Fold this sequence. Notes:
Blueprint: H1 4-7, H2 10-13, E1 27-28, H3 46-56, H4 68-78, E2 84-89, H5 92-103, E3 109-114, H6 118-126, E4 130-135, H7 144-154, E5 158-162, H8 174-183, E6 187-191, E7 212-217, H9 219-223, E8 229-234, H10 235-241, H11 252-263, H12 266-287, E9 293-294, E10 301-305, H13 311-320, E11 323-324, E12 326-327, E13 337-341, H14 345-359
Parallel strand pairs: 1-11, 3-4, 3-5, 5-6, 6-7
Antiparallel strand pairs: 2-8, 7-8, 9-10, 10-13, 12-13
Bound molecules: pyridoxal-5'-phosphate.
Pyridoxal-5'-phosphate binds next to helix 5.
Amino acid sequence: MLQPQDLIRPEIHALSAYHVTPAQGMLKLDAMENPYAWPGELAPELIHEWQAQCAQAELNRYPDPQGTALTSQLRIQLGLSDDLDIMLGNGSDELIQILALALMSADRAVLAPIPSFVMYQMIAVYTGMRYVGVALQDDFALDIQAMLAAIEEHQPVLVFLAYPNNPTGNLFAADDIEAIIRATPGLVVVDEAYAPFAQASFISRLAEFDNLLIMRTLSKLGLAGLRLGYLLGAKHWLYEFNKCRLPYNINSLTQLSATFALQHQTTLTRQAALICQEREQLQAELARLPGIRVYPSAANFILIRTARGEADKIYTRLIQQGVLIKNLANQPELSDCLRITVGSPQQNQRLLHGLSAALN
Ligand SMILES: *Cc1c(COP(=O)(O)O)cnc(C)c1O
């Protein structure tokens, strides 16, 4: 009988599919989702207007292949100059895949710090590229000497830097990022998925470097269900990448909902400001718990380190209390680490109670 491993590429057969822990009925603080509904309490009057627009969508027709209205809305909001372009993706995950498809070849390397966002490595593996991970320092700052040495040795076609980094939450030093962009023979993607929670961005510096791209997403801002990411960069690069984008990758309801949400963006930015306030509060309260080390965060989540060997037990006890966070303790660079998404004030209180109980 024909077995999958007779046909499936060995590197794929060896992988596990991206795992999403079932969260039915749980307080979900594992995936950096915005805790507030959209449009939510801040602007309940918007819901009718949005629904009316959805009702008029022509779902018998293919979507606008270029996402014209959405792209112009983004251009206005970002103040993007004419020599730069935007490419829309079905989440930024799809954009990572498009970049890899356009650049892939077995002898070429994709480079990123570790720990960082898992999809950089997964997509490098899917596309049969070499993946080079360079360890961060103990405080999760970039090890710039090691990065530059690895860039010199492997000559990567693609470098990913998450800014702020997931799962550590910190912003890398801008000088280090600049040195990496200058040293890289290929493209550097600064992944700004958490930009809504960080007072930092490389967008204003796109014109300075001919090998810089910026990736963003609406997921962490509060619209994870829409699946919309976007890539910013020079026109001549995006022109090529656009050839690897599947036609109609952004569905009509996403296009109109995202355009509408961005036209009323104050709702989302006010939610982001609330989340940042709550992050400061939660960091302070977590730091008071015995045996817990709290790492600084410029994102909507907080990485903590438990006493040695305690993380699995704490994670499981939280689940028993109906609270789901992310267990990272099985990754060697993140031993004893757990990642907590910042929720609403009530949710964070529930988490803190659960955590105190789990620590006893
Ligand atoms: C969550 C995340 C993404 C993925 O975003 P989607 O747009 O939802 O695919 C990309 N990069 C980083 C660093 C993330 O944490």
